[in-house]
Amino acid sequence: MSTIFGNKIKNLRREKGFTLDSLADAAGMSKSYLWELENRESPRPSVEKLAALAKALSMDVSYFLDEEATSPEERHLDQAFFRNYGELDATAKEQMRRIMETFKKS
Question: Coiled-coil regions in this chain (predicted)?
Answer without folding.
Answer: none
